[in-house]
């Protein structure tokens, strides 16, 4: 198998003149970009960094971030990308846990970085315009003289260490080897039917597995990566039209924003032929609206994680709304019964057809990680008998297709019944006056938990109307929301995942 450095060189050798990356006024071919990547690789060598070392980036989705990512692959150095919004204590935890040797930051992240203890112990390179002082080293200085890159990495080297969001505790480092990253990139190309010279919007952050996959897969097909440093729906639509973007791979929230923009119309996105989504379920109403607005040739529901990139793929998402499909090219999955005793025990009982259970995935797959970084406690909880326990709930239908119903931790237990929020959300999303909806379980003296629907309305609607709507649907009565809360916004993570814990804690603003 080729390592990732040779994968990039393959693209350069195949067509050095093809456009590789666009970021504002920056436009570079594969041949031009390679010289910048080689310059950063040379800088690593000059700083004494060696194969297996780790460097930190706290950057938005910009040209510099993508360049550093590829330079790390060339050098056999692991990149540790963090959210550019990371606070100083988060930076310190991740930097110390990963034992990083060098950092790259930009203006928007510099303040928090300088408040961290990490800033006192490692060198930093600034990805921004040079200031009046010569105190720092600047990225632009490093690439003034181009250098031919050389592939010094190996397939067993750690390519990237992604830190999970840590919503229930300290974030966990997910080290992914170059061979797993390449396998995931190739599978992504195949499963999304990418052609040579595709053009995509590089908007999913490079500290998230979807962002990394976009970057790698585009290189595999000599495509063009159109960098969008931070999400701005109107700038994204402008970029799609200007650069003739051919496919999109986004979380549902960003698609929702696009359709809601007054600047969106089908003629501006007519070059987009393929849509893909991941990161969260897409409710029926949004799915249908996107299909009508884009008329895509392919609409892929991709279900996976940082730990094992692909679990399942559904290449015709509209035909079977909510369906995550069947196991991907490199995956095997099962659904095991819930509540089978100790978490240290490997469950042996599989859930029946249409029975909700926990989704698990075979760690022998080519895209899988091998365990968390310095977190044996997390390994013990999530890895058993060679299988990764996703923490997601779901079921297989009669056709053997997987439906993901939520998180084990999000399961609502009301009156002794297990209730998944996703089914309720899908039904309510179809009401014409509901813009967004999230369902959570709130404490109730009688039921234990009661089903509460949090609604961001797009028209005039009240609880009585929505309750009647649910009564007239296929929703079983005990799953019907007992309360409706109208909010100004549904709280979400930086990559668009609904933060139910904030709803449960009352951390929202009523409409």
From TrEMBL:
Does the keyword Ligase feature in the UniProt annotation?
Answer: yes
This protein's record includes keyword Ligase: yes
Q: Which residues form a coiled coil?
A: none
User: Which keywords fit this entry according to its UniProt record?
Assistant: Ligase
Task: Enumerate the spans annotated as AMP-binding enzyme C-terminal domain.
Answer: 423-497
Under the GO molecular function aspect, what terms does this record hold? medium-chain fatty acid-CoA ligase activity
Q: Which GO biological process entries does UniProt record here?
A: fatty acid metabolic process
Task: Please list the residue ranges annotated as the AMP-dependent synthetase/ligase domain.
Answer: 10-373
Gene3D superfamilies referenced in this protein's UniProt entry, alphabetically: 3.30.300.30, N-terminal domain of ligase-like (3.40.50.12780)
UniProt cross-references to PANTHER family, sorted A to Z: ACYL-COA SYNTHETASE, MEDIUM-CHAIN ACYL-COA LIGASE ACSF2, MITOCHONDRIAL
- Please give the family membership noted in the entry: Belongs to the ATP-dependent AMP-binding enzyme family.
Name listed for the protein in its UniProt record: Acyl-CoA synthetases (AMP-forming)/AMP-acid ligases II
Q: Which organism is it from?
A: Polynucleobacter duraquae
